[in-house]
Amino acid sequence: MRVLLKLTLDCTPDAAWRALRSPAVLREVVAPWLDLTSLEPGGLPTTWPEGGHRVRTLAFRRFPTGDELVDVSYPGGLPAGVRMLRDGGGALTGPLARFGRWDHRMAVSPLPDGRTLYRDRLVIGTGPLGVAAWYPTWAFWQWRGHRLRTLAPTWSFDPPGTADATAAGGDS
User: Fold this and answer.
1) Helix (H) or strand (E) holding 101
2) Prior bond to 32 cis, omega within 30?
3) Backbone phi, then psi, for 124, in 5-degree steps?
4) Structural contact between residues 5 and 141, judged by C-beta atoms closer than 8 angstroms
5) CA 133, 134, 139, 141 torsion-angle sign
6) Could you give the CA distance from residue 69 to residue 50 in angstroms, rounded to a whole number?
């Protein structure tokens, strides 16, 4: 099964990239339907480093629905200006574990007007869930897209030396 999103986000590519790498932003994007809590000793990181991160998913921020592995990588060899986060993990327990294969890729790239082109592709094995899982998954992905568009204008962080700081006139 494949679910795709292609959106224009009202923020800079640097701001979108920082947001995509943030577990806190992920929690905001999937709320109120889902939440996640870390199963790792140090809790959720500020940004996703490469490698596996065990989390527990919670329906409606309250009811455990299973454990997942968020297996983060940052693929290289992309066209100039494109940055990608890949999650090759998936559910370990619970109903979503029936999906089997999980390949989620999110990419950002600059648009000529300074905003961000966001592309999101989820490919999952359907196993016993089959076609019945496609619509709920698609509907949830539309919710994620709505949340991304809503939150994107609030994403900003202009550390000195970044393109954001230079564009804002804060980097001399």
Assistant:
1) none
2) yes
3) -130, 150
4) yes
5) positive
6) 12
User: Do residues 126 and 1 touch, judged by C-beta distance below 8 A?
Assistant: yes
At residue 46's C-alpha, the angle toward residues 165 and 18, to 5°, is: 35
* Predicted TM-score of the model (pTM): 0.86
Q: What is the DSSP letter of 70?
A: E
* pLDDT tens across the length of the chain (172 residues): 889 999 999 999 999 999 999 999 999 999 999 999 999 999 999 999 999 999 999 999 999 999 999 999 999 999 999 999 999 999 999 887 877 788 999 999 999 999 999 999 999 887 666 667 788 889 999 999 999 999 999 998 666 666 655 665 554 4
Give the DSSP H/E element, type plus range, for residue 163: helix 163-167
In the block, tokens 């648009």 appear at 111
C-alpha to C-alpha distances, 134 to 2, 103, 128, nearest whole angstrom: 8, 15, 12
Q: Let me know how long the chain is.
A: 172
